[in-house]
Every structure is written in C-alpha cells, then in structure tokens.
Amino acid sequence: MQENERKKLEAAGWKVGNVDEFLGLSSEESAYIEMKLALSQTLRQRRLNNHLSQMEFAKMVHSSQSRIAKMEAGDPSVSIDLIVKSLLALGASTQDVANAISSATSRAA
Amino acid sequence: MQENERKKLEAAGWKVGNVDEFLGLSSEESAYIEMKLALSQTLRQRRLNNHLSQMEFAKMVHSSQSRIAKMEAGDPSVSIDLIVKSLLALGASTQDVANAISSATSRAA
DNA sequence: TGTAAATATGTCATATTCGGCATAAATTAA
DNA sequence: TTAATTTATGCCGAATATGACATATTTACA
Questions:
Q1: Region of poorest pLDDT, from A85-94, B18-27, B31-40, B91-100
Q2: Could you point out which of A55, A75, B41, B54 has its C-alpha 20 to 30 Å from the C-alpha of B67?
C-alpha cells in the first residue's frame, strides 16, 4: 500500500483490526473504503455544484449538517446506503453512481 | 411504472409510503431498489459460479444462511453495504461492483 | 413416490447507523 | 484584525441492520 493511500485512509478515521498488512487493511477492506471515499467525494462535488451548504442539503434530505459532514468525510459511522440515497436526492442517476465507484478503481493504490 | 417492474418490487417485499405514484415509489426510491436488486443478483451469480451453497458462503463471511438468502432476495432488511462487502469477499473487484450497478440502468423500467 | 439438501421466511437480542444537538475549527468577507 | 458563515467533531437516545435460530418451502435425485 502506498504512503498517500495510507494517509487518505487514516484521514478518514479508519481503524481496522487483526490483519497482517500495514495498517491492518485486507484488500477487501481497502476496496470497500475506496468505494466509499469515491462516493463521498462525488457527493461533495454534486452538492457544491448545486450551490448548497451542508445545512441546506441536510434539510433537503431530512438529515443533519453533522451527518452530511460525516458522509462527505467517508466517516466509518456512515453507510454506503446513506451516501447513495443522498446522491440520488441530488439528482444523480444509477449510472452516475456506477461511474463514481468506477472512478475509485483508477485511484486505488 | 411498468407492470413487470411493479411485480419485481412487490416480489422483493418492498412497501414504501406517502408518494403519489402507483405503489408510492419516487424515482429515487426505485433507482435505489434497482441498484440493490442488481447487486443481489450479481451476488447470487457469483456464489453459484463458485459452487458454494448459501450455508457454505455464510460461514466464509461470518454470517448466516438466512441472511444470505435475504441478501440475494434484495430484502429490505439488508443494506447495500452488506451486499457489497459480500461481493468483495467473493473476489469481486471495485470495477465488478460498478458494472453490476451499471447493469441496473439498462434493466430499469 | 420419499427423502435429503438447499433455500426461504419469520422472529429476536444485539450491534450498528441514524438524526439531532453542542461546540470546535475553519473559511469567507468586512 | 473581527464577525458571520460554513464545516468538522464528539456525544447521545432512537431507529435500523445484523447474525442466529427455528421452521417452512422448494429443489434434486433415487
């Protein structure tokens, strides 16, 4: 795993256990996190493109500003489900979601 | 919404509320369900390709046979997160997941 | 037909995720 | 700089997802 990869995951606050690689990330775990971060970043981009603050967007989707912040940070406490639903609320299509995940592949370590 | 689409969603056990369309599915809700069903079906295909019973696969991913069945049925009680993690455990790549979701687009009503 | 293996369905206690709140930190504009 | 706005972080009770279990149904094959 590359150094910048490690930093990205640490920055997202991930702590995982009992594997033997550096930082304890199995390939499945890191693939999952990469996907989630790709979706998170797409969410933020879409929100900004729509000129919405986190607070405004939170009200749109009946959530809270803090949860939007955590979504966009790829926080471990948020599910992919929630991020996907939020993307759809911002007008993303199924294909847009697929493309976002697809973009994670090229960025993976 | 088409009739066969309706049946597919009903078969998956979905009950949704307070929208004005038939069966109460907003476009975001149906997009979410389509994605989930596409992932579910991909999961089943992968499991069968690997010649695993639900029970065998359940042990691999530290889950239970009943939950695997619900995953593959796209049951409302299972999250996309769980299905994605299971796909990764079966050797799917990030791109495979993206492709599965992408395939939902063409199948959507 | 029977019967064994596989899958589906319903329920429950526990674990995880959720919105909401307070507040800290950062960003922007005067 | 200051003040206003936006975003980040930590915590909590409520809501939802989870594995596990029992059991029903379906499938495969003799």
A1: B18-27
A2: A75
Pick from A13, A1, A80, A4: which is nearest to A42 by CA? A80
Q: Are A75 and A40 in contact (CB under 8 A)?
A: no
Give how far B78 is from chain A: nearest CA, Å.
Answer: 10
What's the whole-model pTM score? Answer: 0.86
User: Both ends of chain A: CA-CA distance in Å?
Assistant: 6
The pLDDT tens digits of the residues spanning A37-63 come to 999 999 999 999 999 999 999 999 999
B9/A39 Cα distance (integer angstroms): 25
pLDDT at B81 over 60: yes
Query: Which residue, chain included where needed, has tokens 């991913």?
Result: B61
Taking the CA of residue A25 and the C1' sugar atom of nucleotide D4, their distance in angstroms comes to: 42
Residue closest to C22 C1′ by Cα: A66
Q: Rg (Cα) of chain B, in Å, rounded?
A: 14
Tell me how far apart the alpha carbons of residues B78 and B99 are, in angstroms, rounded to a whole number.
20
Amino acid identity for residue B36 in this structure: K
B104, B70, A43, B1: CA torsion to nearest 10:
40
Cβ neighbours of B81 in A, within 8 Å = 79-81
Give one DSSP letter per residue of A41-67, joined into a string.
HHHHHHHHHTT--HHHHHHHTT--HHH
